[in-house]
Amino acid sequence: MKLHTATENKDIKLRQLHKECHSPINYQKTCPVCEKEVQNEEIVKAYEYTKNKFVVLDEEDLEKLKKENEDKSVEIIDFVKLEEIDPIYFERSYFMAPDSGGGKAYTLLRKALEDSGKIGVAKIIIRSKEQLAVIRVYQDTLLMETIHFPDEVRLVKDVPNIPSNEKVVKKELDTALMLIDQLTTAFDPEKYKDDYRTALMELIEEKKSENATVIANDKQAPAPANVMDLMTALQASLDKTTPKKTTKKKPATRKRTTKKHA
Q1: Where is this region: Disordered (predicted)?
Q2: What is the dihedral of CA 100, 102, 107, 108, to 10 degrees?
Q3: Model confidence pLDDT, tens digit, residues 12-65
């Protein structure tokens, strides 16, 4: 079974530039104690079980867990009614498409869910993470929606500043109910638009038409004095390999010298 993301994040991402030369700002991984940039191979993963105390996890152990999870397939464990699940649990939607030769099974599951009025509760592995999900019919497809595990949903009692059952004035309640009644309509998703995103894109297009644009300075920044530059790194790499080549030549040289003396 193949998954295809059914929703898309339309947020407009803005880059940060250096105001003086319009170069994109880089984000580097640095160690605040060593005061230097840290390479990926120098980084280990760890779990902070209490403040400033960590359990370091070996990459081999993580890879083993990852492999074990990847070997698992989609497993439907229950069938329930959709209305029994509060929307707070829903996370992300995926269209489901059958693999080659899986059309019959796909059609059978779709028809069974449709006729029963139920949805399937399943477990699935996505990017090495076990996810709880529901599978339901959406128009002519199967739709899988990942949902949060119960312990991922915060308890209502932990929400601060929730007012107690204060007395509500009947006149105010009647006004509120009247407003709800006036605005009640059938749900039509097409009528709702992201006004801010639309206005922001209009502003961007307006700036482009006025040629209010800049060209990023792609000049490479000089390496800090305490960071090895490219030539130094290259020379270090050559130094590591040069002794090996020299060692191979030395035995032959000594043999030739011995023969001459003989």
Answers
A1: 236-262
A2: 180
A3: 787 888 888 878 887 788 888 888 888 888 888 888 888 888 888 888 888 777
**What is the helix (H) or strand (E) element at residue 19, kind and residue range?**
none
| C-alpha distances out from residue 124 to 5, 54, 94, 105, 147, Å | 15, 29, 12, 18, 11
Are 36 and 227 within 8 A, CB to CB? yes
CA torsion angle 116 119 121 127 (round to 10): 140
Phi, psi for 96 (deg, rounded to 5): -110, 130
Domains and CATH numbers, the chain: 73-154 (2.40.290.10)
What is the CB-side half-sphere exposure of residue 31 using CA atoms within 13 A? 11
Structure token digits, residue 134: 């529901």
Question: In this structure, what DSSP letter does residue 24 have?
Answer: B
pTM: 0.63
Region class of 243: left (phi > 0), else alpha (psi between -120 and 50), else beta: alpha
Are 181 and 174 in contact by the 8 Å Cβ rule? The answer is no
